[in-house]
């Protein structure tokens, strides 16, 4: 997480953030609108992108969407907009975290370093491992999922989250624990995205079986796959 691209049209704020991050040992490159951010990213090599939402030329959500077409670089949104829809939209587009303005640089650094730790390779799944939990079947060798015999198409990260729940069926797993169990060598998973993954998994399985309710939310704790 050493090389950071900061894209924000508030030049004064960007300057303060860049200076503080530099003092923490990061290398920060700035761009001040979405179009310039895209060009700068394409011309360089960055470990993480800090991205404002409301910008001229190209807004942060559109820029995130374009970056995700070619890169899995971690993205943290920085925004003064607190609308829940904007937050969820950003995560759905592939952002890894969301920090509202005003924020402390200490908190920002903490989140950057947390993403860095979670990007470190985890132990890979056993070759050809197949998990069964009632009517659920997760084939980690083939990266295939089926519910009551009907194939369900999941992304890699969604499949790893579901596999973690299936391995410990009946037990409540916190979001942090799901991150530890589901993280793969090329997967970017943070605490805030776990909720989004669960939402997507439920929707995709319910497309095959509208009565699917096996993933239980335990308020204030995490999630559990019912026995």
* Cα gyration radius (Å): 19 Å
Number of structurally distinct domains: 2
CATH architecture of the largest domain, by name, is 3-Layer(aba) Sandwich
Overall pLDDT metric = 84
Q: Give the tally of β-strands.
A: 12
Structural category: alpha/beta
CATH superfamily of the largest domain: Response regulator
How many strands, which pairing sense, and closed or not: the largest β-sheet?
Answer: 5 strands, parallel
- Beta-strand content bin: 15-25%
Residues in helix, %: 40-55%
Determine the CATH topology of the largest domain.
Rossmann fold
CATH class of the largest domain: Alpha Beta
Word description of this protein:
By secondary structure, this protein is an alpha/beta fold. The chain has two domains: 3-118, Response regulator (Rossmann fold); 130-225, Winged helix-like DNA-binding domain superfamily/Winged helix DNA-binding domain (Arc Repressor Mutant, subunit A, Orthogonal Bundle), CATH 1.10.10.10. Helix content is 41%, strand content 22%. The protein is built from eight helices and twelve strands. A five-stranded parallel β-sheet has the order 2-1-3-4-5, sandwiched between helices. A four-stranded antiparallel β-sheet has the order 6-7-8-9, with helices on one face. Strands 10-12-11 form a three-stranded antiparallel β-sheet.
Features:
12 strands; elongated; five-stranded parallel β-sheet; single chain; Arc Repressor Mutant, subunit A; four-stranded antiparallel β-sheet; 8 helices
How is this fold's topology laid out?
Elements: E1 3-7, H1 11-23, E2 27-31, H2 34-43, E3 48-52, H3 60-68, E4 75-79, H4 84-92, E5 97-100, H5 105-118, E6 130-133, E7 136-139, E8 144-147, E9 150-152, H6 156-167, E10 173-174, H7 175-182, H8 191-208, E11 215-218, E12 222-225
Parallel strand pairs: 1-2, 1-3, 3-4, 4-5
Antiparallel strand pairs: 6-7, 7-8, 8-9, 10-12, 11-12
């Amino acid at each position: 997480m050493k090389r950071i691209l900061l894209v924000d049209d508030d030049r004064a704020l960007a300057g303060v953030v860049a200076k503080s991050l530099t003092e923490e040992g990061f290398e920060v490159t700035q761009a001040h609108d979405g179009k310039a951010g895209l060009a700068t990213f394409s011309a360089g090599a960055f470990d993480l992108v800090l991205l404002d939402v409301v910008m001229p030329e190209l807004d942060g959500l559109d820029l995130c969407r374009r970056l995700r077409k070619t890169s899995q670089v971690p993205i943290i949104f920085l925004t003064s907009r607190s609308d829940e829809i904007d937050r969820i939209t950003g995560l759905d587009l592939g952002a890894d975290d969301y920090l509202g303005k005003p924020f402390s640089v200490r908190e920002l650094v903490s989140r950057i370093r947390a993403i860095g730790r979670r990007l470190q390779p985890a132990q890979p799944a056993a070759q050809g491992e197949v998990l069964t939990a009632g009517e659920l079947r997760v084939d980690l060798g083939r990266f295939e999922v089926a519910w009551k015999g009907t194939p369900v198409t999941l992304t890699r990260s969604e499949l790893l989250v579901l596999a973690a729940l299936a391995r410990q069926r009946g037990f409540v797993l916190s979001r942090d624990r799901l991150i530890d169990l589901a993280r793969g060598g090329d997967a970017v998973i943070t605490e805030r995205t776990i909720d989004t993954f669960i939402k997507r998994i439920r929707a995709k399985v319910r497309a095959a079986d509208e009565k699917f309710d096996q993933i239980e939310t335990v308020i204030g704790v995490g999630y559990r796959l019912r026995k």
